[in-house]
Design a protein that fits this description.
The complex is a heterodimer of chains A (about 325) and B (about 325). Chain A has about 325 residues and is mainly alpha-helical. Chain A has helices at about 5-25, 40-45, 50-65, 70, 105-140, 140-155, 160-170, 175-200, 205-210, 215-250, 265-270, 280-305, 310-314. By secondary structure, chain B is mostly helical. Classes of the chains: A mainly alpha (about 325), B mainly alpha (about 325).
Chain lengths: ~325, ~325
């Protein structure tokens, strides 16, 4: 995505100064270090190692989920009581659970649930939260009402809020996404509202208001581009916490229905046996942790890249 | 000062009212008709209607909300659908393990995380700093129950240093109580430690670049005095804020931790209530946790004036 611009930025100015040097001075000193020419990918990795590592890990997990049918020859939901609770071996890489299902294929398919929930919640919470934040930042009379409601929602711990909402409905992936999204919206709207309020004081926004620019155009031209950076960073963190929330909900039996293999479900099923068959719990646990880690690294990298002042501190 | 305290205390009322409204709506919107359930399969529609009127279920939303709120304010959270016991009594039986777990986690996390953050800021840019920050990223990424299972596997199953599961009441003795709670507290504290360490480091870095710190250094004040007397005191406000906000993580995490370690606390109560669709219990626990969270953050806000006398509202 941004690799092209960075590649161009590095090479062009160097070339330009060299030309300037030649025209002004008579000869270049021999000791000038040779200009390093790296490929775009390598430049990116060198500049943003955290983002590169996080992105690569996440890509692997995405491929794992997408290509799940190609990576395993077992049906993740096929019951086979005859071969239940086998320890990991050459045939069943991660072993089998108490119903004889292959844990390796269940973990592969489980990646789909985590990724779908993580990405959907991040996208939905960002869109809804941004809309609420924009309204709150621009419509004075609505602001205090909206913010009181958000304060109220924020004072219910997010997991508890999601649990309470899930208690009202059947367990399904869609309901899990809705419940976690509602729990995440207040934080996003607070963030966007804060950015909007500080932007409204900026001279260029005041100038736009003074010259009679209609509000929607001001939002489109001046506000949205400036909220995008903090919102993108926030969205990655929301994605990470949504994945954990889905696993927690499924783990306590209030999330994804047991028919669908998800990492939380596999762990919930292995819970009763974990002291004798710890691998049932540990394989999904490891994959969940790696996936959340990759998204968090991506978020940290994005934050550092988008706000270099913060990078020195955090 | 006094006016500020009064205003801040009053400002929690609308927040709590919204929480109460949400929690009440939970029961209001809950699927299943209590009147039909009580009436049984043989009842005619007229019977169901009569029972509904008898229970007051046919009255408007706001009147029922007012009545419910009045009961809550009088300490009556209703009766559990599953056990027929008053919800307040069920909660009272489960409070001790959860409060024990949270307090221990709080003490443990703060005493580990703050020195960690200070150490990282003081050694900014070195491998110590990097190691602590890597730890923080892992703390954010590895979910509570994963940490819980790993700890339980290593320290309880393999090394047998601590019991695998369960809870010992404080009345039995401090030793057994602590022994049973150490692993859950460490597991629950993971994210919290990461959060506090990170904010401590960030604020300390900012404070350490201030002129008065440079002056203190210049006149030969020892580094320990600078760190803990000059810097940490001035960095206290954001750190305490995050400690308050992070209590939400502890509450959410306790639900899972209590399930992993089989601790008979409020988290376990709410999980059981969900599986049984026992709405009054879910309501009661959500309400209690949220009010506690609001009060903790009220306390934190009032603490500011102690840490930073410049704050005058």
């Amino acid at each position: 995505m941004s690799t092209t611009t960075y590649g161009a930025h590095i090479e062009e100015p160097v070339a330009a100064t060299t030309v300037a040097h030649v025209s002004q001075a008579q000869a270049l000193p021999d000791v000038l270090p040779p200009v390093k020419v790296r490929g775009r990918v390598r430049t990116f990795i060198h500049r943003y190692p955290t983002m590169a590592i996080g992105g690569a890990l996440l890509l692997i997990v995405i491929l794992m989920g997408v290509l799940a049918p190609l990576l395993t020859s077992y049906d993740p939901t096929a019951l086979a009581p005859a071969r239940r609770t086998r320890a990991p071996n050459a045939q069943y890489w991660f072993g089998t659970d108490m119903l004889g299902r292959d844990i390796y294929s269940r973990v592969l398919y489980g990646a789909r649930v985590s990724l779908v929930v993580g990405f959907s919640v991040a996208a939905l919470a960002s869109i809804v939260g941004m809309t609420i934040g924009l309204v709150s930042g621009f419509v004075r009379w609505a602001d205090s009402i909206i913010m009181r409601v958000m304060d109220g929602l924020m004072s219910i711990p997010p997991i508890l809020l999601a649990i309470a909402l899930m208690a009202l409905t059947r367990g399904s992936v869609g309901n899990v996404i809705t419940a976690i999204t509602i729990a995440e919206i207040p934080r996003v709207s607070r963030l966007v509202r804060g950015v909007v309020l500080s932007l409204r004081e900026q001279p260029y926004v005041e100038a736009a208001v003074a010259s009679g620019t209609p509000v929607p155009l001001i939002i489109w031209r001046h506000i949205l581009p400036n909220t995008l950076a903090p919102l993108t960073v926030q969205a990655t963190y929301i994605c990470a916490s949504a994945m954990i929330a889905e696993a927690i909900l499924s783990f306590i039996g209030a999330g994804t229905p047991p028919i669908i293999p998800s990492w939380g479900n596999i762990m919930a099923e292995g819970r009763a046996l974990w002291q004798v068959k710890p691998y049932i719990v540990f394989f999904p646990a490891i994959f969940l942790s790696i996936t959340v880690l990759s998204v968090n690294l991506l978020g940290d990298g994005l934050r550092d890249a988008l706000d270099p002042r913060m990078a020195k501190k955090l | 000062m006094f006016a500020y305290v009064v205003r801040r205390v009053l400002s929690t009322i609308p927040v709590m009212a919204i929480v109460a409204l949400f929690v009440f709506s939970l029961l209001y919107l809950a699927p299943g008709d209590p009147a039909a359930i009580i009436a049984g399969d043989q009842a005619t529609p007229e019977d169901v209607e009569r029972i509904r009127a008898g229970l007051g279920l046919d009255r408007p939303f706001l009147i029922r909300f007012g009545e419910w709120l009045w009961n809550v304010l009088n300490g009556n959270l209703g009766v559990s659908i599953f056990t027929n016991l008053p919800v307040t009594r069920m909660i009272a039986q489960r409070v001790e393990p959860t409060v024990s777990l949270m307090l221990l986690t709080l003490v443990l996390s703060i005493s580990i995380a703050v020195p960690m953050g200070v150490l990282a800021a003081w050694n900014h840019g070195t491998w110590i700093d990097r190691l602590i920050m890597v730890f923080a990223v892992f703390g954010f990424s590895v979910p509570v129950f994963v940490v819980g299972y790993i700890l339980a596997y290593v320290f309880a199953l393999e090394l047998e240093w601590f019991p695998v599961q369960g809870y010992t009441p404080f009345a039995t003795g401090f030793g057994p109580w602590l022994n049973n709670l150490v692993l859950p507290a460490v597991a629950l504290g993971g994210v919290y430690i990461a959060l506090i360490a990170r904010i401590t480091r960030a604020t300390m870095l900012e404070v350490l670049s201030q002129d008065y710190v440079r002056t203190a250094k210049a006149k030969g004040v020892g580094s320990r005095t600078i760190l803990f007397l000059h810097a940490l005191k001035n960095a206290a406000v954001p750190i305490v804020t995050v400690i308050g906000i992070g209590v939400a993580l502890l509450i959410g995490g306790s639900v899972v931790t209590e399930s992993v370690f089989a601790i008979p606390g409020l988290g376990r109560l709410v999980v059981d209530a969900i599986l049984r669709r026992d709405y009054p219990v879910i309501q009661g626990v959500v309400l209690l946790f949220s009010f506690t969270y609001v009060l903790v953050n009220l306390g934190v806000d009032l603490l500011y004036t102690l840490f930073d006398p410049r704050i005058r509202y």
